[in-house]
Amino acid sequence: MNTREAYCAFCVCGRSFSLPSALTLHQKSCSSSKKRLSGALEKAREVWIARKKARTCAAEPGLSTIPDPGTDAVADLQVRCHRATLSLEVDDIHLSLLERRPWTLRNRTFPAKFRDNLPEFLSAFPPADDEEAIPSDDFQVVARGIVSPSNSFGLFRRYHTTQLPSHDPENEYSGCNVLPEAKPRQTWNPPTANLSQYYPYPNASSFRLGDWYWNGSAQKSDTNFHDLVTIVGDSFYRPEDVGKANWDQINTILGQEDAGEWLDDDAGWTRTPVTISVPFHPRRGVRTLPGDGPRDFVVEDFFHRNLVSVIREKLSRPHDDALFHYEPYELHWSPPGATEDVRVHGELYTSQAFLDAHDEIQNSPPEQDCHRPRVIAALMFWSDTTHLTSFGEAKLCPLYMYFGNESKYRRCQPSSHLCEHVAYFKSLPAEFRDFARNQTAGRKSPSGPLVTHCTRELTHAQLRILLDDEFIDAWKHGMIVLCCDGTERRFYPRIFTYSADYPEKILLASIRNLGGFPCPRCLVSLSLVHQMGTPADMHCRQAKLRIDNSSRWSRIKAARKLIYEKNLQVNSAAVNQLLQEESLVPNTNAFSEKLGPLGFNMFQLFVVDLMHEWELGVGRSIFLHILRILAAQDESLLCELDRRFKLVPQFGTAIRRFTRNCSEMKQMAAHDIENILQCLLPVFEDLLPEPHNTDINRLIFVASHWHGLAKLRMHTDPTLEIQDAVTASLGEHLRSFSEQTCPCFETRELPREADARMRRESNNTAHSGSTKKSNVERDTHVKDPTAGRQLKGFNLKTYKLHSLGDYTASIRYTGTTDSTSTEPAELEHRTSKIRYSRTSRKGFIKQLTQIERRQSRIRRIGLRNSSEKATKPVEPEAVSFDLTPHYNVGRSQNTPVNIIQFVRENKGDPAVKDFMSKLKGHVLPRIYAKHLEASRSQNSGTISSTSNQTWSNVVEQDDPSALTTVFFPGDRMFQHQIMNINYTSYDVRRDQDIIHCGTNNRDVMVLASGALDREAMPATHRFWFARVLGIYHVNAVYTGSGMLDYNPRRIDFLWVRWFNHSVAEAMTWDKCELDPVHFPPTNNEESFGFLDPDDVIRCCHIIPAFARGMAQVGKKPSKLAGEVEDWRGYYINRFADRDMVMRFHWGLAVGHVYSHTGYRRKKTLSTTLGAHRGNTAVDQSKGYEPPSNLDSEIPIEEGSDVELEELMLVNREEQDLDEPGEQEELYGGESAEEEEGEE
Predict the structure, then answer these.
(1) To which H or E segment does residue 921 belong?
(2) Burial label, 11 (beta-carbon count in 10 A; 0-12, 13-18, 19+)
(3) To 5 degrees, how large is the angle CA 1091–CA 1094–CA 1099?
(4) Does residue 691 have a cis peptide bond before it, meaning omega lies within 30 degrees of 0?
(5) pLDDT tens-digit readout, 57-98
(6) For site-directed labelling of 360, which of 552, 658, 994, 1175 has its Cα 20 to 30 A away?
């Protein structure tokens, strides 16, 4: 009571107060205090500027200009700020408590700035009808054609013509999106006499409702429901119009095979019967009757579309025509400093195959009296049998067709609707067995070779129907089409690729399944396929290419004469003697029969298939045999392998969590096998004794490297040279694994394999009627876990292994593997399955054709009335995915964190040691750069005298008061959970990673300091890695030299925990090891820090080093850093995705601009793959600039929360630090309690 009466304080306005809290509350709204404080601040600022100016004049006479933010002076300021924090012995008696903080922080060097250029489309040509000459400075006319200027990435085009392209899709691109989008074009609506423009729909309301039903999802979701609500709630929607519509009649008209006059250039479906000739199959000892011989068998209802009509329909769509490439071109890359440009491989319309076909057409004699432009229509086919239901026998074998004139980035998106369903292949019906029984001597069941022969005959009979006379005429003479730009062109269809799995490839190529020469492209013997990658093997592939010539035709013709005229079996000795030399079959091939006389070599159609040949082929077999080896060594090792896989963190959408036991390999798709191989190195480490552990680890590394290169979407000549070397290395490691490692283990079948074999044996026993028990059944009483499991070796003599040697040549000729893989067909199977769910399940193929026509025609009606459809309200996006800025973070301030309270609550945690001084040291250079940039903008390039400072004037050498010029209103920072990092990938596409502090997606990579040094060796660590502990922003106020005002400016930052490299030099590719890293001790001053989001390259995938075990923690582990979950070491997964692989191939990625300077292409491939990582340097002054809205000032209004107390120069930190040691936790130094603990 006496104390309260004794207290008395006065405000500057004259009021007195008896309580300290009352005075504090009054000062928040007292205008006199605010005015007095403002005057004091202004006077202090003038004194400070005068003192600094005097020092400047004494050191350097004359005035200097303000440098641009982001120059090398930025690093100088950062270094000076940290030098200031190192000053321990300073005469601070005359300083305030704030200025007498102990500056003991020693932060790591700042990461290097890098350029993250936005994707830029290729330089567009002027219109072809432009009468002006081609500017010599931009477009060059060379001997072989026209060369366009390079864009900022060094990419340019070279056309094989001396005239400007008549149609340039680059002019149609609208902005730098992840996928190119066509600009809206003015479409001509044909006159409709008495028909509605929405015919067969009577009005717009019924059309929109029909579009929602047919083109929406078959299984309605919340999104579909909201779409329906939007349609019904539209002001233009009229319920009476919908009630008048005859829906059954509308659906019937839409599903008709022929659209009639209301829709031009419509490629409807046709139903055609297929006839095959079934030979007579004699048997030994059974007399052949006089009437026995070949008979015709008819298969009804083969549904297909006319290929010429499909091409015409495609070219009549304005939306597709805008991005349709009529003229192919060579894509070249000229990196800075390169002595010569290099060829870029990616799209089919930039491939050598397309250019050769185009040149052949242009150099051939034109049609009589025809001067129209001649264009190639590039056709790409896919086919694969798929099950339409999870339970049931409904199957479908569709034939898909894409156009290679369109970008593969659009073709791989099913939502783009670029896939054309052109046929649904029929298989032999059930009644065929009865028919074939009558064609077998003794009326026995037909043999397997006979059924296989008839299956091949049926397939090629259907292909002959597709390759009809109209298509062959268009192949020879072209087809005249009036394009959407009003120009008539003559299109020549050409088939470039046919993608299928191996059983369908040999069916289409008319060769034997796993015969003596299993490859559909060359005549390498099955006994030599294990030599893959050797010089002799690569030479043999080129010397023994399959050619569809007269010799092959004569052999097949002679074999068919023996079968159909002499009534010999299809697998008789005489037939085999004619065909086994090249593993041929006695079937007439449709491609050879129709297109062979025109000079077409059908064997070039069958391109490589990464999904089936690697992910479901060689890669899967490698992992499967590693499991067998582990089981042979110790069954418990499989459990350890599964445990480690489940601890592997997720990485975005590229690598998913392993929730099931990988050793069981149950229901694994191709992407599951891919993820296993990408993460197998750290998981397998030290599970086997040496030298097997090292040998298998090197095999896994080389296999992962080959896979990472093979699946790239953009290749250059240097990367293909690397892939050639890796292919040879992979062959050597596989042979060493088979000959040296595998014999050391007695490998047997896995339980899953034994169960599958037991089921096969059981089925065979049931069919044969035998009562003999299988080996598994006889040994079930034995307790030995390996009972019934047969020995199993590692087989190298497979076609899938042989095909790996063709990837480099295939990429050079037809483009990258993602353009020819069977994966697009697998994605398109979803469309067929969704349509099947709308059918009655009986006679569903006809219903599928009707649904396909309805959906396609409704989309065309919508495009025809695009102007009206544009008035439909668009659903707002829940999340904005703006890929232009380098990062996106929330703008809200709903989760403020008081820094003082945050440090107090986590007292003793090493993560918050020196938190405030580190944060201010990080913020100071960035906010100073913002002030300088704002000063330059306000003065329009003229620097005022008050701002005429240099970087060296900002902080004196070892000035400990440097950080006192930065203040945070209210000592608050604002927390965020998610940050999107946008970056330009290696193939010049914009991509995005998500940092989420609540998940494992929080590891990032930055350029190491000195990574861009020209003199840096290839073995130098190019990157640093960190784990994000928090995403924050502060509203910082700067009061130092060069300030403009006291307005807070937003600074986004990441609070990180740094990884340290475990080895002095980076792991080059020839070492076949991942980069090891580890967390330094938490009491290390460099363990924690702050990071500018603009310095983050992208997220990275870091896997624990399971073999080293968990890390030992002290008595007081850091809770904020999650130290109790630390491992002793980690590995950087450079195989996480395509872009990450190219990050470690320094200087070879087109989209990674920061690594281009100093690039030199080597004439020959070095023996060490690490030599391809060129020494580069980039101008650090051209760092990525954040969006302008992040630099905006935060307005402070009267009566708002940000008032006098938050802008006071005397920090509230001093008033709130009541307990001993809190100042040291906040600003550095050690408290007495910590010193006692260390003793």
Answers:
(1) helix 915-938
(2) middle
(3) 75
(4) yes
(5) 544 443 333 334 344 444 454 444 444 444 333 344 444 333
(6) 552
